């Protein structure tokens, strides 16, 4: 007869951070008239891999070292495709950055890139600043993600800790309108200084004109009907 | 009216230079005592490697302030990928840092492979072909960096040798991919076409030529006293400075730190190749120059090993065996570039109605990628080339961000130029190996 199984670990509910990327209704997306009978089809696409601590391998080392130094900074953890993403609180980001760079268990010396992503479906936290960190000492990579609302897109700058983030933050400001507070010179970098709008947001049009050929007209790329989304 | 024709018109920042005796002009200028001038170098200056604008504040010939201004070549490539299929994005992204285009395709394809979860299943031949083309492309890129730097110093023969060799490298690239540049050869799921029938012979021939001719660049320069005087001690960045600005590639390795992603975070089976990481301990432009020359020799070694692997894997698949991923690469190389292979055209037009339907469906809508985000980094010729890809589960990328090494490296321009001579600024900038197509995207 089998022994009594050990008590299961208490199930900790995952923190409730928005993870939705996009949703879809009907088979063709939401713009075209649907005659297929699949109009009631509804799908939701989420950022996968949210996990509860304890993590595995060196992910746990990093997670515990952060929790010991800046306890409330991490909102959620994602382990997906072998990569660790930490969703962190914007207000604690400078403190966290300093710890990530200087703590001997962390030593993320390089903030290789800051890129923005716009998720219009995540109402209240549409704009994400994503930091790609590299620890040359430990040969590890880590991703930090900060989500802020479109209406108040303020993130503290990390240039005091990682001077190389200077231009990357400027580019993210230029393209997404995320304002990095405390940046030494937050100006547009790729677009002209007097440009209006944030070109890489999803609601900013790609531009382009319809293509006319032998009487038929093909819409510009951003107005073309998309199959399979 | 006085006789001095260089008068201050009320505004201290403004003066009018008229005709006068040179002595009087010099005296008047001395009396003004503001002897710095601001010079715009670029965006059309040939020695700025493209459309880079440097705002230089000069005290005599000494650079006391250098501010790079970029964006003149911004073409919205990242945004445009969001409206194209996953495969079409390759065609766009290869045009970012176009001198090392193969690496742009590779980093993007590796990122999409990771999103698709097929990295481990990649056939050995696909990896060998990717490595082959990346290393061939590394030689072309280093030859451009080395040659352009030589030209800027007035060493035109160096540029001639480099252009000659690069042309041979590009001819090989054309024989394999159909195009000299902007190849769109490395794609998610593998590569576009298999090596041509005589491919291994072509590699052997290329290796023989490079072995013979590449040392010529070093013979011209390495012991040349004028050349050394121009490069040694110029553009100095030690390890502390490199770490503070996130430098990578030859600039970081010139400090003696052997950080090469091909060794430290291998991809495409690089761990199975035998090659050395080249370093120098001079922290200056000369060290970076020597590293680039040595790295080309190491690339030749890798290319030779690729030939062995490609011989061993002849006839094996060069891409993932998945009809959806393979669809857009049923290609062949013809005299005018890539095109649908005749066998494929015969199949869909003559043999199979189903085949035609599938061809149409797969080529119009492409394949979908499960939702998620990844960051992939590879060792491009100028340093760490990263690619952040987000998928929403659809047939188009949700967001693609290229972390270009040149974009990051240009932040170091004030550090390597200020306090030096104006002529050294050109050398220091050249040693960073920035390509504006990648910087501005």
Described by its quaternary structure, the protein is heterodimer
Biggest β-sheet of chain A: count, sense, barrel? Answer: 6 strands, mixed
How many DSSP E strands of chain B?
10
Q: What integer value in Å does the Rg of chain A equal?
A: 22 Å
| DSSP, total strands of chain A | 12
Q: Biggest interface pair, residues each?
A: A-B, 49 and 50 residues
What is the H-and-E element order of chain A?
Answer: EEEHEEHEEEEHEEE
Overview of this structure, please?
- The complex is a heterodimer of chains A (229) and B (441).
- With 229 residues, chain A is an alpha+beta fold.
- Chain A is built from three helices and twelve strands.
- Chain A has helices at 58-69, 93-102, 165-176; strands at residues 20-25, 42-46, 50-51, 74-80, 83-88, 110-118, 127-135, 140-148, 154-156, 179-181, 211-213, 216-218.
- Chain A has a six-stranded mixed sheet, covered by helices on one side.
- In chain A, helix 3 links the parallel strand 9 and strand 10.
- Chain A is globular.
- Chain A starts with 19 loop residues before the first strand and ends in an 11-residue tail after the last strand.
- Chain B is α+β, with helices and mostly antiparallel strands and 441 residues long.
- In chain B, the strands form four sheets. Chain B has a three-stranded antiparallel sheet. Chain B has a three-stranded antiparallel sheet with strand order 8-9-10. A two-stranded antiparallel sheet of chain B has the order 4-5.
- Chain B is globular and about 90 Å long.
- The chains are: A alpha+beta (229), B alpha+beta (441).
- Chains A and B meet through strand 6, strand 7 and helix 3 of A and helix 2, strand 8, strand 9 and strand 10 of B.
Task: Describe the structure in brief.
The complex is a heterodimer of chains A (229) and B (441). By secondary structure, chain A is of the alpha+beta class.
